[in-house]
Amino acid sequence: MTIYDIARKAGVSIATVSRVLNGGNVKEETRNKVQQVLDTCDYHPSQVAQGLVNRQTRRVAVMTLDIRDVHHAAIAYEIERAMADAGYSTVLCNLGSDTTCVENALRGLRGQQFDGVFFIGSVFAMPVYSRCITRYITDIPILLTNAVLPQSNVYGVLADEAGAFCKAAKKLYHAGRRDIAFVMDGETRSERSKLDGYARAMAQCGLQLSIFRAERSVEGGRLAMEHILLEAPDTDAVLFTEDTTAVGGLQALHSRGITVPDRMAVIGCNNSVYCSICSPQLSSIDNSLHATGRTAARQMIALLNHEPDVEKSIRLPCSLVLRDTTPPML
């Protein structure tokens, strides 16, 4: 059944059927006649065809470098669910880390008729990626998670990770820890924000900074902890910027027979499933992953509906979830 068949059965022009389907101006009597034929024939218009008329495809893209990252997967899940509830389909684009491939993918977005694009991860605020976003995506709304860009069509949802790491370090201090190390895995905006919070707390508490770097993996965390024990043996607490590396750190402590949290307290970040499946269970900063995805989707829907006064950036609170790797007095 086509729009031509509907027009013939209703005794009207194709243009009239099109106006009925797209909410155009049609006499009520004519609209009812056409709608009766549509209902009888169980006719459902092509979304692609409607998109050509409305200049809206009801499709959005979700961009991430690596969907295997539990952080990114949680946000992508919430975005997809919320956008589906609003009548949009979501196309997930797993870009990988090759910058040339990423640039080609972003360039190709211009011809794929998306209504909006989400970028998951503060990595997209790095110049190598942000230059491509600014250059190739200028005419549709963009929502970044954990990042912002000074571009008129770009909006952001961020978690207050700096504040959370500052509070976590100060809680460790008030629990009697005086040699608090910090393990980060890169130079993204998110990692720098976490570092800023840690550094602020250490300055306020009059403690020395103790910063280490690790690959974001269990093995990377294990190696980082081994390095801490060798280079800073008085360390009595470690803040990791990722749960996965924190789990590796716990493995290193276990293999050395170092008790947790009596001798060493450990805190991760993301409050992921890794926290409850490791032993002892990991204390972690909950940086609002699921709320970030839902909030980003609400922002996008508001933009696509042309609502006024949509906030350029929203900052969500974080919380510290205490488990077995931190002393009870926290």
Summarize the model shown.
The protein has 330 residues and is of the alpha/beta class. The chain contains 13 helices and twelve strands. The mean pLDDT is 91.
Q: Which terms would index this structure?
A:
6-stranded parallel β-sheet, 13 helices, 330 residues, 17% strand, alpha/beta, 6-stranded mixed β-sheet, 12 strands
Structure, explained:
This protein is α/β, with parallel strands linked by helices and 330 residues long. Helix content is 46%, strand content 17%. The chain has 13 helices and twelve strands. The protein has helices at residues 3-10, 14-21, 28-41, 47-54, 70-85, 99-108, 127-136, 161-174, 189-205, 218-231, 243-256, 274-277, 289-304, and strands at residues 59-64, 89-94, 116-120, 142-145, 154-159, 180-184, 211-213, 237-240, 265-269, 283-286, 313-316, 319-321. Strands 2-1-3-4-5-11 form a six-stranded parallel beta sheet, covered by helices on one side. Helix 5 links the parallel strand 1 (59-64) and strand 2 (89-94). Helix 1 packs across helix 3 (28-41). The longest helix has 17 residues, at 189-205. The model has no long low-confidence stretch (mean pLDDT 91).
Question: Could you tell me the number of beta strands?
Answer: 12
* Low-confidence blocks of residues: none
What do the pLDDT scores average to? 91
The total of helices stands at: 13
Class by SSE composition:
alpha/beta
Principal-axis shape: elongated
**Largest sheet strand order:** 2-1-3-4-5-11
| N→C terminal distance | 67 Å
Q: Could you give a short account of the major beta sheet?
A: 6 strands, parallel
Task: Give Rg in angstroms.
Answer: 26 Å
Q: Strand fraction band?
A: 15-25%
Helical content (DSSP H or I, runs of 4+)? 40-55%
H/E element sequence: HHHHEHEHEHEEHEHEHEHEHEHEE
